[in-house]
Amino acid sequence: MVARILALCLFATAVGCSGGSLKIDGSSDEAFQASIEKIKASLTAEEKKAFEDAMLAVGLGENPIQNLLGSAVAGDIEAPKRRLRDKLDGKTRDEVLAEAEVVLAARKANMAARDITADNN
Question: Does the predicted TM-score (pTM) go above 0.85?
Answer without folding.
Answer: no
